[in-house]
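Continuing the batch. This is chain 6 of the set; chains 1 through 5 are on the previous pages. Same settings as before, nothing changed between runs. Recording input and output for traceability.
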Amino acid sequence: MAVVLPSPPATASPGLDGVVTKPDTTMRAPRVKPTKEDLLKTHAVHVQKQANSPENAPRPVKQPNLALAYPASTKSIREVDIIPLSQLEVNSHHRGSGLILKVISPPFLGAGAVSIVEDEFGNVDKISIYNQNDSSILSGVPEGCIIGVKEPYYTINGKNADGSEDYMICVDHPSDVTLIRFTDPIIPEPLRLGPLLKTAEDWKKAGDTAFLEKDFPTAVFCYTEALDCAEDEGFKPSIYTKRAGTSLILGRYDSAKEDALASRTGTSTDWKAYYTAGRACYGLCNYSESKEYLSKALELNPTNPAIKKEYERCLARLHEEETGDYDFEAIYKSLSPKNVHLDLGSFTRNTEVKASPLHGRGLFATKDLAPGDLVFAEKATLMPNQYEPMRASAALYALTVRQLLDNPSLCKSVLQLYPGEMTYERNPLEGTLVDGVPVLDVFIIEGLRNKNCFSVPLSTLEDTRPTAQEGRQAKGLWVHASNLNHACVPNTLRSFLGDMLISRATRHIKAGEEIFQQYVPVKSLPDVRNGVYKDGWGFECSCTLCVAELKQSSEASREKRKDLLAQVEKILNKKTPRAKTIIPDATIRSVDKLMKQLEEAHEPEIYGRLPRLTLIYGSNWLVGAYRGKKNYSKTIRHAVKVLRNFGFEMPQGAESQDKVWDPRQMFFSEEWHSLMTIHVVVALRRLAEAYNGLGKKEMAERSVEAAEFGYMLVTGFKNDLSNLDR
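Output for chain 6:
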């Protein structure tokens, strides 16, 4: 039988999260199984329907249900007992066993690649292979190929049209299936197809043809077969060169580097090998290693413009890594919905990862940092260009699995992240190569995605504008930033430019001090926000504010604040007045009275230098109300209160319109615990407007300068405040 090598599936863009129904979990033998002819007939109908459907339709993603988690196999196909399909039991994972199967149908490409398979005894069944990258031939196994399935999970896929059960071998973990080379002696004699292509030259030509047709997975497959059957060692370097170049196109940088170095012959033409290896290392963001290989390429071919260009790019990334010197304005201008993956190095020298006294690992300063200093800037380890909220999580999950599969060198940094509590212990073999691929547990990967990902706007600057589209955020993993622990009143603030995370100090940080961030915007009430942390990450916050509110403030005081805040929110209906809205005086008096009571409910000995979060909403509202009436003195009074309620130190008498003070200094207090948000910037702008209204130009200018500094903290780089009006 000739092997059919079809065109690869269209590049898959993640779709909606897969829906998992509650399964029948009883382990048993299948009741009634369809014949080979019936299986192939039904499958052919589905394949034909797909062939008639529009091309490039997105493939959905089967996102794991953690409640149904089971561990990946860590065994080689050569270490398991090969069993026939007839011995499979429904809802069993068949630990210690494996299958050697021939694919006897073209694949149907949905969330998984569904095929009909046959064992050496003529038994047939259906298999669905999930979570394979489009760069792999396993993403749609061609008819005639041989696969090995380790510790197979056999399950019920639903009901057939006649009401009978539809059985299926379900391969969730991508490392649980392996493509077996045609020359491998593990293949049973009845499944052997004989020589498909006789020589290494034939396989190489087939690979070249596939490459010209841009069928890159098939090209890699053919080049690998050529290497397996090549008897002439002198023929292999050219095949390694071909496979390295193809892997580079597919983003399989580990393989590209390995093959490029294997292609060296000790002659001057080795510049090609070093050039490819350098580009592969660049793709992995290993710029020091990239520079090493590109330097060797230049030594052998010093006038080649392509090598020079790549070398200069590499030097630019190394400069960014060393200095943190970025042109953020130019970076912002380069952003577009199609260009979110920036060509930048990560600056992390001001920080280091160490054991945290709080829990687990933490990030610590390696030098003294002042407010506004760049703490670190990190390019995303993984971030798909998918800003649709319903698809962002599935897109990141799929990208993570596929990138780890394609580039095993990423496993060490990504798999060390915390995935949350699992129903089984993690295996130390995760990420190690077995049968040529890293052991990947998709449930672990989904757990660590869920616990460590960040929600990301196209840029934080755009997100501060009134015209920003609410909810349009991608999700990404930043491995270095994932080591940060949470504090409700942190000492840093993060912002985003495409796939670049920027962290700036919001107050003085001493060398050796742990660096904190907010995981999510904090809720006003301590029990509510800690419920969010408990549900999302399994911890109770022990920051200065939470300890003060939950451990030091009395329960009676907490309940009083909660009740008064509820009264304020009921009156205001959770709305902030617009600029031209005129609020009735009676409403303003009612809110003002409640706010005074709420302020008195904050114990001075506890909240002396801490934020008073329950006061922020009402204070902001009063600023808007008095601004609408052009009552500048009261606008100043309540804008100052907003700043104080965020935890900024205000000089005595600052609420008076006649007080001369410098709002810029509020960012540099070493004793107060302040919380920086966009609302602080807005309050400073309202302060400036009110001072201008009273003719106090110097105070207005100082307030604007303070707002500009705050806006730089929020957006990550210096920006014009007029963006807040667009």
